[in-house]
Queue: 2 jobs
Job 1
Amino acid sequence: MRINKYIAHAGVASRRKAEELIMQGLVTINGQKVTALATTVKSGDVVEVEGQPIYNEEKVYYLLNKPRGVISSVSDDKGRKTVIDLLPEVKERIYPVGRLDWDTTGLLILTNDGDFTDKMIHPRNEIDKVYVARLKGIANKENLRPLTRGLLIDGKKTKPARYRILKVEPDKNRSLVELTIHEGRNHQVKKMFEAVGLLVDKLSRTRFGTLDLTGLRPGESRRLNKKEISQLHNAATQGN
């Protein structure tokens, strides 16, 4: 098995991130530094990443209803609570599939399957990521229409999105809008609404592909079943 795939299967990082670790000289096989991406791992080889031995684990997949104020990371140098802290019973080295801002709530998948992660987050697979945003300002077809054509955010155009106006409260100067995107760029939803003159006051991800948060309160999680995992794989294949 190629070294980047081995690292991904061990749940340390996605395959692309594994390639970065290799090129940075942070991976060894039997004590020898590896820098060639084509290097293969044989039975009995000892693989270490940043000095820590790694092993292939059973693949696991969890669905979390992320609460506000929790970091979408495996650790935090400032000592803040992370999503991993919310799943203390999980023994495998899981990590979040993509990220939600600390103040964004809702659906987050965690796994130790690097290939699955790549499939889920790559824009070409066009997996629906659905958010509900409470906005400062009055949303209407005119100011939301640019979202459906794509917007220039940080020098790069977004893919066309879909929206649905759920509620408008003129007396409070606020609106509730559902937005469906296929990407996961940094602060993307907030920046998209800001680009059309609306500021996000509250944001939650309510759906990811075929998954929703039915039965999960904030902070609660559950393991995905084989059918749900298969449906996500199929969604990625159809979008590609």
Job 2
Amino acid sequence: MAIEAWFTDERNEDQRFPHQRKPNEPVSLDHLAELGVLYWHLNPKDYENDEELKKIREARGYNYMDMLDLRPENVANFEEKLRNFYTEHIHADEEIRYCLEGSAYFDVRDKEDRWIRIWIKAGDLIILPAGIYHRFTLDTSYYVRLMRLFVGEPVWTAYNRPQDDHPAREEYVKSLTERVGVPLAAN
């Protein structure tokens, strides 16, 4: 099963809604890969023994892992945290998330600065490249359990837009011009 992604509409409704255009404009895995977004579908029920996950972690150097159980009753200042996650930002490092339960949305900007909504569900592992403008929100299920992977000690510093002079952003923009014709390393 492939991940679902689409260009969003411009309505200012609840961020947990799908925000699909009418008619819907799906986005392919190839288009996401052109933006540096990588995807795998794994077995979330056996993540502790998943050989494919082990290979990904070893190949990419993800030696630290933790869990995020995101639901109102588990997180202090839940609504404030969601607002922060939904503020457009970049990171200096990749953002790696593996959905074990529930579902949520990652929104990323494409080369024309349009929003693409990526709906992650159990089994979906995505990697957002350092420097890509993005945001995160829950969907209407209002619950997701995510594995977060890091290279080295966990760093999660968000740099809110605008960040066009940030080294990670400059490197990302440069990589977009070099990425044409590069084969996919993910599913």
